[in-house]
């Protein structure tokens, strides 16, 4: 009796693994039907594995569609859970939150964003958005041009818009949102620069105050301290914009000189924080001649 009891979990596990492996060759809808044969713990594990399988965690038919307001229409997974009497919507929310954590740990950020949102982990969504906005992929033209990067960029823009419209409803930390907003603005700034739209980039730079050019004591700002790693690239693109404006004559020289002096003062005050690459140094030196 005791030995049999000890063997049962291993046997159950092997049966569950066999069911999951066999079901994996079928559609999501069919897999949900096969998972009905599993006990609840194994079934939850199988469902999480399904959500983390390539592309499944971004499938609107399975998870349900998230509209522009952030609201969600139940998909196949939630309807199946309800039909099987596995509880109310709380079961679906818990499953999504758990799968979201696993997706984040694996670097499956598109899945993590959706799953955390459906799991009502709104603070975690913001953290994943910030992590995505800091990814080095955006600095590498070839990598940023891939289909996967393009889809991630679209998701980041989409969910940033959703969360911007629901700050109070999602009870987001004002500091966390301020960091996310700055990172998002920086991403849009660089995107316009890469697309050859310096006027649009400069508008974002000024409106969002991407660099604290007028601040007397940046070192005391917790927000700015979190953005220090972004400064060199922002400065680099800003310098290129100013050089373009100078060469094209699209800005009054007095205004241009004012911007250059302001930037030079900022860099002098924060030389220990901002290390520029050689092209930026050369461009800044050429601006000093205007």
UniProtKB/TrEMBL annotation:
The keyword Cell inner membrane does not apply. Keywords: Membrane, mRNA transport, Nuclear pore complex, Nucleus, Protein transport, Translocation, Transport. GO terms for molecular function: structural constituent of nuclear pore. It comes from the Eukaryota. The keyword Protein transport applies. InterPro entries: Nucleoporin_int_Nup93/Nic96. This is Nuclear pore protein. It is found in: Nucleus envelope; Nucleus, Nuclear pore complex. Its main location: nucleus. GO terms for cellular component: nuclear pore. Pfam families: Nic96 (PF04097). GO terms for biological process: poly(A)+ mRNA export from nucleus; protein import into nucleus. Belongs to the nucleoporin interacting component (NIC) family.
């Amino acid at each position: 009796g005791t030995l049999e009891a000890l063997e049962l979990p291993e046997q159950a596990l092997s049966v569950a693994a066999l069911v999951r492996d066999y079901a994996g060759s079928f559609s999501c809808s069919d897999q949900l039907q096969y998972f009905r044969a599993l006990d609840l713990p194994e079934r939850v594990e199988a469902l999480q594995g399904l959500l983390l399988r390539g592309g499944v965690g971004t499938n609107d038919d399975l998870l349900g569609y998230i509209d522009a307001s952030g609201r969600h229409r139940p998909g196949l997974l939630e309807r199946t859970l309800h039909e099987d009497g596995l509880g109310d919507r709380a079961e679906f929310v818990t499953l999504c939150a758990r799968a979201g954590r696993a997706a984040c740990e694996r670097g499956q950020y598109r899945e993590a964003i959706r799953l955390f949102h459906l799991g009502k982990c709104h603070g975690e969504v913001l953290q994943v958005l910030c992590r995505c906005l800091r990814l080095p992929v955006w600095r590498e033209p070839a990598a940023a041009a891939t289909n996967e990067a393009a889809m991630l960029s679209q998701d980041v823009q989409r969910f940033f818009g959703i969360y911007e419209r629901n700050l109070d409803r999602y009870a987001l930390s004002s500091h966390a949102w301020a960091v996310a907003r700055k990172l998002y603005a920086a991403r849009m700034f660089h995107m316009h620069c890469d697309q050859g739209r310096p006027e649009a980039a400069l508008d974002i730079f000024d409106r969002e105050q991407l660099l604290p050019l007028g601040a007397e004591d940046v070192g005391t700002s917790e927000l700015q301290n979190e953005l220090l790693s972004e400064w060199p690239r922002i400065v680099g693109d800003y310098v290129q914009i100013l050089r373009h404006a100078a060469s094209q004559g699209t800005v009054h020289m007095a205004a241009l000189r004012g911007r250059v002096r302001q930037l030079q003062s900022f860099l002098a005050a924060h030389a220990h924080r901002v290390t520029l690459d050689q092209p930026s140094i050369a461009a800044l030196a050429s601006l000093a001649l205007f």
